[in-house]
Amino acid sequence: MLRAAVAGIGTTLDELTTCEELTRGAAAHIGGTAAVVRIPWEPSGGTGATSGYEAVSGDPAVLPDMRWTTATLRGGRRRRAVRAGTRPALSLPLATGEHHFGVLVCARRGVPFIRHEAEALALLAERAASHIRHAREHHRVSRIVGELQRALLTEPGRPHPNLDVAVRHLPAGRRALVGGDWCETVRLHFGRTLLVVGDVMGHGVEAAVDMTAYRQALRSVAAADLPPHRVLRQLDGIAAGEPDRRPATCLIVRVDPVRERITLASAGHLPPAVIDGDGRTTLLDVPVGPPLGTGLGGYEPVTYALDPARTLLLFTDGLVERRGEDIDHSLDRLAAVRFTGTEGVEAVLDTVLARLDAAHAEDDVAVLAASLRGRAEGGADVT
Are 169 and 211 in contact (CB under 8 A)? Predict the structure, then answer.
């Protein structure tokens, strides 16, 4: 019975779940009630005020007065027992090494606790304390990783005022941030803007670091005002010269609002979509070169017209790809999405993310919508 109780503690990296597993096992072992009082962990690394009874298993009325429990916490890591009428209680430290996380409190009606029961409960408390330590360390590391990724995932630059742009990043699963998926906008001369979407292989901090390197290189290369296919060639050469750099797909679109046209080039990336004034979605045919970092080059440009009634949509594969589904079918689902034809760029993103259920995507999602400022919301012309 004790072996089963020990095996059932620490099945997850969630601290409260571990406490619940501990109290369930302890209550079953003594035939009474068990609860924990934790010393909360603070993000600064210190500890806060103690909690009340938590993860109670059994009848809460059997537990001793909280003042007695608080006194046992102040008393350090000693095991303490008390008998209040017909309700004996036992307080055991949740501690391991130099770390003290609170106490396990057990109580029942009737006979006092005997020595072997106290030793068994101490074993359970010690096992739980070890798992609580792991859970708090995991939480601390996850918080650091999240802060690092937030620092790496900078916002895109500001486009020219003649272009409306909206960007969204959605993490997959329970990750805090999007890792290697990214969007960027770069101002060029003569009112033109470079729109970029990319996807570094992998997830997490490593992908985010390489993503930042690609974005920094892009901003540097784009300053020379090269056409999109030559920008990709430069980025490919830079990445290929760094053996540890992860490959990445990338789509670059140069928007020229004055001439109402766009020039595109792709490095292994999915094609963009255009939403016309009637709300219909069409995928653009773009020559696809190898991903960045291969050193193979071979990128080709293509040019299309883009009038103010149309909205351009750039995205990473997480928006459309689904496990076990052919990519052509995935893109067909995007092409089947219909819009009102009068939606602004933010509303376009709301619609496409909802229709494709991006909140439950298996991969990270980055998506960018852009339109020329030639019409107001509702389709009216503006100057």
Answer: no
Cα 200–chain centre separation: 16
Closest CA to 194 of 301, 296, 288: 301
Q: How many residues does the chain have?
A: 383
Backbone φ and ψ for 317, nearest 5 degrees, come out as -65, -20
185 close to 155: Cβ distance less than 8 angstroms: no
Q: How far apart are CA 293 and CA 272, in angstroms?
A: 22
- Tell me if the pTM is above 0.85: no
CA distances for 47 relative to 40, 100, 212, angstroms: 6, 10, 35
Q: Residue 157: exposed, middle, or buried by beta-carbon count in 10 A (0-12, 13-18, 19+)?
A: middle
**C-alpha span between 185 and 249 (Å, rounded):** 16
Q: What is the bridge-based pairing of β-strands 261-267 and 288-289?
A: parallel
Q: Residue written as tokens 């589904």? A: 325
Pairing mode of beta strands 87-96, 80-84: antiparallel
pLDDT at 48 over 70: no
Q: Please check whether residue 253 is in contact with residue 222, taking contact to mean a CB–CB distance below 8 angstroms.
A: no
- Contacting residues for 325 by C-beta, under 8 A, at least 6 apart: none
| Cβ density class 167-186: b for 16+ within 10 Å, e for less | bbbbbbeeeebbbbbbbbbb
Q: What would the pLDDT profile of 239-279 be if each residue is shown by its tens digit?
A: 999 888 899 999 999 999 999 999 999 999 999 999 998 89
Query: Residue 378 — very low, low, confident or very high, per pLDDT cuts 50/70/90?
Result: very low
118's enclosing H/E stretch is: helix 115-152
| Residue 224, SS3 per DSSP | coil
- Cα→Cα distances 75→71, 93, 129, 172, 268, Å: 6, 10, 18, 46, 64
Structure tokens at 259: 């001439």
Helices (H), 50-98: 66-74
